[in-house]
Amino acid sequence: MNLNAYDANTQVTPAKELSPIAWRWVLALVGLKLLVHLITSGHYGYFRDELYYLDCARHLMWGYVDDTPGIVWVFKLALVLGGSLPVVRLLAALGGAGTVLLGSLLARELGGGRFAQVFAGLCVLAAPAFLALTSVLCVGSFEPLFWIGCVLLVVRIARTGKSRLWWWFGMVAGLGLEMKYTMGLVLACFYSALLLTPLRRELRRPAFWGGVAVMALLFAPTLLWQVRHHFPLLTSMETIRRDGKNVVLPPLAFIVQQISILNLTLLPYWLAGLGYLLFFRGPNLRMLAWFYLFLLAAMIVLHGKDYYVAAIYPMLFAAGGTALEQAFVCWRWTASRVWPKALVSAHAFGMFAIAVPAVLPLLPPQRLLAYQAALGVRPQKTEVSHDGPLEQRLGDQFGWPEMVAEVARFYQTLPAEERARTAIITANYGEAGAIDQFGPALGLPRAVCAHQATSFWGLPEVEPQNAICIGWNRRSMERHFDSVTLVIEHRHPWGMAEENRPIYFGRNLHPTLKEMWPRLTYWN
Predict the structure, then answer these.
(1) Backbone phi, then psi, for 412, in 5-degree steps?
(2) CB burial class (10 A; 0-12, 13-18, 19+) of residue 305?
(3) pLDDT grade for 6, boundaries at 50, 70 and 90
């Protein structure tokens, strides 16, 4: 078979030549993805950002400083379903299962048969980045659904010439913008790549601009929220840059991290997919290769975190699986043999089996570290100040219930009239989210916090006189309280170092919290 026969002019493969969807195998992979996450979902605890988003879901708005409302709507659903840890992690697992499914469907859309579809799903299943991002409920659990959804629609447009699908593209992209602002950068790279190929003819189609209009309409409420609140997103980004919050990787190190987070041994497959799109699929689908390269370059230039590009790799795995399948057919000596396909499939599945205990919260922390050390795995920091024995994604799942219980024990020792005048002030949204998640059952009031979006609802209605302060240093407190008492030295052996700090009680706050609020508000 001639690899260049596909998409020689303007279309990929005639619709009638697409292979049937290998539902039995694809759904088996989807089920395995769900199963492994459900088995490990309750072994540790809530992640810091999960506690924050649950707090956001109790205060629905059209914007949240550096986050769009899409992920908050998902957490609102979690609250409706009870808000328990298994429910939260089930929603994350569903996002991951959807990514496996879309990777397989994209392989089919690229002309892949049963092997290509299954192999693409296996690679998505095995990549550590996707195991990690769907082990907690976060934006990364759902980003691939929108990115790959858009790619799949464009491939279908190129294959069939059905320009009306741009309307659906606009809807998927608009919802993606409501999930994370990064989708704007994705679209900028996508349209730039489009201009380099014959698919730019689609810019003359009314449906293309109709899709743009749908996208703009869906994103308009969040954009207006940012305008109304003087663009807190830009303030947050500037604060991150000024404070040097994130680890900034030089270009080569950033690319090396892409290889690492996807598993070094899977590199040949997605690299083959990139080459396949770049050299063997004709001018139309070459735009997908340019799209990836533009996005990678943009993330490097803008100092994005290494995993920010992860959501695009199901596209390359789908292309790589299709390339392998067609190569097996081209090499006549393998045409009638199953073993080459079985070998690479077994390799991908083996990488999945090895990665699960190293990435997911399956093992106790001590054994997890030993297992990672045996594999030579050294997770890289993405934020400068996050230190602890475990990587941040796992370390930030420890210590929250214990911290809240310590606060509650002290709070209950106060006389009733003093409790009524005492607030619980936290330094960051993770601490606030923990108080609001675990505190009500222990008789605690909601937290007071001016960090990120909590600054919009964190100020209490009744001005407090005293405060239990979490994350504050004593010297700062002594400037604002008549007396400061140590409540407890909070420590958790597996928690993050920034949360292993003293908790203080201050009496007679001055000036008032309302007067201090503009100075306390911090967006980073």
Answers:
(1) -75, -15
(2) middle
(3) very low
DSSP-based helix, strand, coil % in the chain, nearest 5? 65, 5, 30
How far apart are alpha carbons 277 and 284 in whole angstroms?
9
**Of the candidates 55, 69, 61, 46, the residue with the CA atom closest to the CA atom of residue 446:** 55
129-144, pLDDT tens digit by residue? 999 999 999 999 999 9
Average pLDDT, the chain: 92
Cis omega (within 30 of 0) for bond into 340: no
Question: Which positions ≥6 away from 236 have C-beta within 8 Å?
Answer: 65, 66, 452, 523, 524
Q: Which of 119, 116, 205 is nearest to 164 (CA)?
A: 205
Tell me the C-alpha distance between 46 and 39, whole Å.
15
pLDDT over 70 percentage in the chain: 96
Whole-number pLDDT of residue 241: 87
Q: Per DSSP, what are the bridge partners of residue 506?
A: 467, 484
Query: Would you tell me how many other CB atoms lie within 10 Å of the CB of residue 229?
Result: 15
> Which pLDDT score, from 0 to 100, does residue 332 have?
60
Structure confidence at residue 30 (pLDDT): 98
247 — pLDDT class (breaks 50, 70, 90) = confident
Domain ranges, ordered by start, for the chain: 16-369, 400-520
Task: Supply φ then ψ for residue 190, to 5 degrees.
Answer: -65, -50
Q: How far apart are CA 148 and CA 276, in angstroms?
A: 17
Joined together, the tokens standing for residue 76 give 């609102």
Separation between Cα atoms, residue 363 and residue 383, nearest integer Å: 25
The structure tokens 């009524």 sit at 420
Instruction: Count the Cβ atoms, other than its own, within 10 Å of residue 256.
Output: 15
Q: Residue 274: pLDDT above 90?
A: yes
Q: What's the whole-number mean pLDDT along residues 181-207?
A: 95
Question: Which contiguous run of DSSP H or E holds residue 426?
Answer: strand 422-426
Give the DSSP H/E element, type plus range, for residue 178: helix 165-179
